[in-house]
Write a structure and sequence with these properties.
Elements: E1 4-10, H1 19-24, H2 30-38, E2 42-45, H3 49-57, E3 74-76, E4 86-89, H4 91-103, H5 106-118, H6 127-151, E5 154-160
Antiparallel strand pairs: 1-2, 1-5, 3-4, 4-5
Helix pairs in contact: 3-5, 4-6, 5-6
Length: 161
């Protein structure tokens, strides 16, 4: 089963408090998704999204913008209880996350989580490849949240399976 954790920028005035409306946001084909990713209007993490959560929030979960990068946001239940909830970040929260990511030093984040992150990916021998993948995702998330903050948008997140 393929799982992708999607982050989608939405103008606050367009945002609806309807799970059906939120689900429709994530029904586009991959060509449309890739186009939005290229414009930093959407971002996608693969099934390793919990490892990215660990990179930012740490093992304790943390507070503030660092805890909102991946799994942060107000949950909105999906009508089907077997599906994960949507997570909504306000425009103000997205702006704080953007500021946090812009100021964060990736290598410091990496050093704090390195040992835990390397375990599932092959240990120290795999570090160059794993470090590179997480660094690239960090750059992508920073660009996404930066563009989102620039436009004053909110963020909707959902685990698409």
């Amino acid at each position: 089963m393929s799982m992708y954790f999607h982050f989608r920028a939405i103008p606050p005035a367009a945002l609806r408090n309807s799970p059906a409306w939120l689900e429709k946001l994530f029904e586009d084909d991959w060509d449309a998704v890739r186009e939005r990713i290229g414009r930093h209007r959407e971002e996608v993490l693969d099934k390793g999204y919990l490892d990215h959560e660990l990179l930012y929030a740490g093992t304790e979960g943390g507070e503030g913008p660092r805890a909102q990068v991946v799994l942060g946001g107000r949950p909105m239940p999906h009508p089907d209880p077997s599906l994960p909830p949507f997570l909504l970040l306000t425009a103000a929260q997205a702006t704080r996350v953007a500021a946090y990511l812009t100021a964060a030093d990736f290598d410091d984040l990496w050093l704090d989580a390195r040992d835990l992150l390397l375990k599932p990916y092959g240990g120290p021998e795999a570090e160059p490849e794993v470090h590179g993948a997480f660094a690239a995702a960090h750059r992508d998330l920073t660009a996404f949240y930066g563009q989102t903050a620039h436009y004053g948008d909110a963020v909707v997140k959902w685990l698409v399976t």
